[in-house]
Specification:
This protein is an alpha+beta fold and 509 residues long. It is built from 17 helices and 24 strands.
Length: 509
């Protein structure tokens, strides 16, 4: 009996693959990392072929454990980072590294297109602002700066659709990732051909749109040879990593909210209509008939990881000697510091900032340093700064009449009891943590289960696979303290944004 599902996640730092049984129990998992390239200021790229290599490595590692028989895999689900623009030719060759979600090279193009086409025209159709992080401006950047490459591009793919192509040979665009394309009508779920022309993107370079759970093909013999999988396993279209993670965290009904704590941070609120806000992000959920009103921040686990790599050599040595995690040691140090970090505030804009600022020039800042501050103060300040960024997005969502009563946490940062409690205290919102920290690959696996008929419904799938293990009630005394610092957090950006822009201009000279 085929009683296993494989979920593949194309993240920013690594490909993660997880094989689960039908109750969501992990049978085996593996991760294979790959680089991020920074060829020029504002340019942030990855090589999709290295994503595929990472996927092959992770799958082979899983099969090598002997814990999983490929014959038992009923289906494969995929998810990936947002806003790729992968140009492939008719033979499927990648013509250029893809700019990723942190890339802002198309800022000038965004300004020109918004002036020419009009903000209202674009926003009323797509439900999203025309910002350089999205896919559309990146496609236009290729058209303007590499016209021969644009001419030779057969289709532009997303991260998960590229892996789907390598597995099956099918060229697809899933509906949840379509929010990166501004000619996509967010209410109707189809391309607007007229807006395509107005924006200057050739419609025939965009793949057809598929539901996230739809089987789009089977593992080919060539893919089987490269991965070790058995040829013929069904593969579904998959979806946006944040949306799959939202499903894997148990958020599949109107009013529920996922709190994201991976490389980036943010939240996804489940709504039953295309409810947009110009400072937030709107996408289809991977669950049919639902949308996600999202806040996506740069500040997340990546900020703590950066701090650990640059400023925690002592903790790294200690972790190695004690056979523990460096992040556990950092947690313990930060826990000894009181809420507010003794007046030390961190702006987590480590690669510009996405919602709700949409400022490519935003910079990371420590404010309030003094001789009395220790590394422990700084670690806690980083955690609090990311929590402030989350709260900023939640406050912005309330402007659209959407309030989160409880958050379902996902991502690596949810493993930190301290950081999760900080987020609960800052946002004054209870947070519940599902049992698995593999929510994203679980969501992708659920899509495979739905598409292959292994599950009868999303409700059945979530009930079988998602269990809540921890609950964090907000400490309102701590919240009152945080709100005093949050006010300064907001003021700091407003007072520093002109200086941030000047630094960016100097760097670009």
């Amino acid at each position: 009996m085929k009683n296993l599902l494989l979920g593949i996640d194309i993240g920013t730092s690594a490909c993660k693959a997880t094989v689960m049984d039908l109750d969501g129990r992990v049978k085996a998992q593996a991760m294979s990392s790959y680089p991020v390239y920074y060829p020029a200021p504002g340019y942030v790229e990855q090589n999709p072929e290295e994503w595929w290599e990472g996927a092959c490595n992770a799958i082979r590692e899983i099969l090598a454990t002997g814990k999983v028989n490929s014959d038992d895999i009923a289906g494969i689900g995929l998810d990936g980072q947002s806003w790729s623009a992968i140009p492939i030719d008719r033979k499927g060759n990648v013509l250029h590294n893809t700019p990723i979600w942190m890339d802002t090279r198309a800022s000038d193009i965004c300004r020109k297109v918004t002036e020419r086409v009009g903000f209202d025209r674009i926003f009323s159709t797509s439900g999203n602002s025309f910002e350089p992080s999205y896919t559309t401006p990146k496609i236009l950047w290729f058209k303007e700066n590499k016209p021969d490459l644009y001419k030779n591009t057969y289709k532009f793919l997303q991260s998960n659709s590229y892996i789907a192509f390598r597995l099956t040979g099918a060229i697809t665009q899933d509906i949840s990732q379509s929010y990166g394309l501004h000619m996509f009508n967010m209410e109707k779920g189809v391309y607007d051909d007229r807006l395509c022309d107005e924006l200057g993107v050739d419609r025939d370079k965009l793949p057809d749109i598929y539901p996230c759970h739809q089987v789009i093909g089977e593992v080919t013999r060539k893919a089987a040879e490269m991965t070790g999988l058995k040829a013929g396993i069904p593969v579904v279209a998959g979806g946006l990593d944040a949306a799959c993670g939202t499903l894997g965290a148990g958020v599949y009904e109107v009013g529920q909210t996922q709190e994201q704590g991976g490389q980036a941070g943010g939240m996804s609120i489940c709504v039953d209509r295309a409810l947009s806000h110009p400072k937030l992000i709107l996408s289809f959920h991977v669950v049919p008939g639902l949308w996600l009103l999202q806040g996506g921040t740069v500040g997340g686990g990546g900020a703590v990881k950066w701090f650990s790599e640059q400023l925690c050599a002592g903790e790294a040595t200690q972790a190695e000697l004690e056979g523990t995690s460096i992040f556990k040691i950092m947690d313990d140090e930060a826990a000894a510091i009181s809420p507010g970090s003794g007046g030390l505030i961190f702006l987590p804009y480590m690669a510009g900032e996405r919602s709700p600022l949409w400022d490519k020039n935003a910079k990371g800042v420590f404010f309030g340093l003094g001789y009395d501050k220790t590394r422990a103060h700084m670690i806690r300040a980083v955690m609090e700064g990311c929590a402030y960024a989350l709260y900023h997005n939640m406050q912005t969502a309330e402007e659209s009449g959407v309030k989160s009563d409880i958050l379902n946490a996902m991502g690596g940062s949810a493993n930190s009891r301290l950081w999760t409690q900080i987020k609960a205290d800052v946002t004054a919102t209870p947070i519940q943590v599902p049992a698995s920290d593999t929510a994203t690959t679980l969501g992708a696996a659920i899509l495979a289960g739905i598409g292959t008929g292994t599950y009868k419904s999303f409700e059945e799938a979530v009930e079988r696979t998602v269990q809540i293990t921890r609950f964090h009630e907000p400490d309102m005394k701590a919240h009152d303290i945080y709100m005093k610092y949050y006010e300064i957090y907001i003021e700091l950006y407003e007072k520093l944004k002109d200086s941030m822009q000047k630094i960016s201009e100097i760097q670009n000279i």
